[in-house]
């Protein structure tokens, strides 16, 4: 989502003179304006979506200064809370989705005016005058001097702003902010810790100066004050990295999407087709498991074909009138005893699995779909490699996948837990397979297991997250299309998720 952050403007300075009995001409006494509110971004574990983030968050303005040297209030900071796993980026200047910043907005407002009008407008925006003194002030030498000083300061601010935009904001907010210990050990009870504010993304405008600031030997009663500066405006893009318990990693066409559909009984809305890069964006679905290890939608032998084939089949059924007598959901609800969700009573455990686009060699060099989508896998508790067992050398695929994960983020392949050897049905599947074919398939699987045992070892962690040993990945031959041997996949995935959750609970 895109957000334009708008900081609070500074409060205006005040022009006033002190009045007291028997003191007809008191000194200037206008207070300064308060600072506008800053905007912070704070990652918090209490949110899971970006839906509560406003599109145009705006911090409060500083309070205006008042007579008798009363300064305006500083505005409180605005804290934008985002879920953990959010990536915050500042949109670059050439991005069409970016909104104007404060300088561009002013330039636009002044566009097409004559030089005099422009000057008047700019003065109007920057100065406050004692009633009816505006013209008189404009004639004074010391006002002109003050104006030059103000413009010089403004130029400097603008320069700093330009320097800052050369390295735009980039925040990868994975960890919650810790409350810091208060500096003062004698702070009153309940104030020992300073609540974290998060990351500053835009600064509020400075407050204006009251008229005492313009006292000079030549002018004992300055009749002007400055207005508050405008707050920064920053356009940000917020992206939430997906969070799934298990991420599927595999080459295009390995059958990742088919596997996800099979694990969810076809509920997962992910495309399956016989060409590379069918899946373009990560998709997360929930897998529900019963106590006996069966899962929702589990049916040995149900075929999960290409989605187009399935849709055509369904359309043909619809056209032939096969669904004509089916009850609607509301009618079903009215039928006594009809259970909405037959699996709900059985469900004992659930976890989420993410289907990802295919990963290929040199994805890190932006070949194929690149590897930007790996970002959303970083946060998975465990990764499962999906390889096509019917390919001539499935172990080569594994080697590439592992190397690409390491390329993307060193240490990421240690998150892998299992190898799912898919399309086992193509090797000696079916009834009429000869003895040799079955033997060849077994041999291939053994070779894959030997390769994994040899080269793909991952650290074993104990409940506290410390490394206690090493083990090879689990290898499970399956057929996603024909829903074969999926129970074993689900059982293993469940143990990984449980272990990871225990570790997480222990660490927090
Ligand atoms: N015979 C057989 N075919 C399968 C099996 N699993 C998947 N397929 C087929 O393989 C093709 C690719 O499957 P997908 O699930 O789209 O593969 P993917 O890994 O998601 O591919 P991308 O999204 O392109 O990365 C489809 O035509 C599936 O029908 C299987 O177990 N056996
Ligand atoms: Mg796919």
TrEMBL record:
GO terms classed as biological process: ribosome biogenesis
Residue ranges constituting the OBG-type G domain according to the UniProt record: 244-498
Gene3D superfamilies given in the database record: GTP1/OBG domain, P-loop containing nucleotide triphosphate hydrolases
Every Obg domain range: 1-243
MF GO annotations: GTP binding; GTPase activity
Cross-referenced SUPFAM superfamilies: Obg GTP-binding protein N-terminal domain, P-loop containing nucleoside triphosphate hydrolases
Pfam families according to UniProt: GTP1_OBG, MMR_HSR1
GO cellular component, one term: mitochondrion
Keyword GTP-binding: yes
Keyword line: GTP-binding, Nucleotide-binding
Claim: Nucleotide-binding is one of the keywords in the record: yes
Taxonomy, superkingdom: Eukaryota
Protein known as: GTPase Obg
Provenance organism: Trametes pubescens (White-rot fungus)
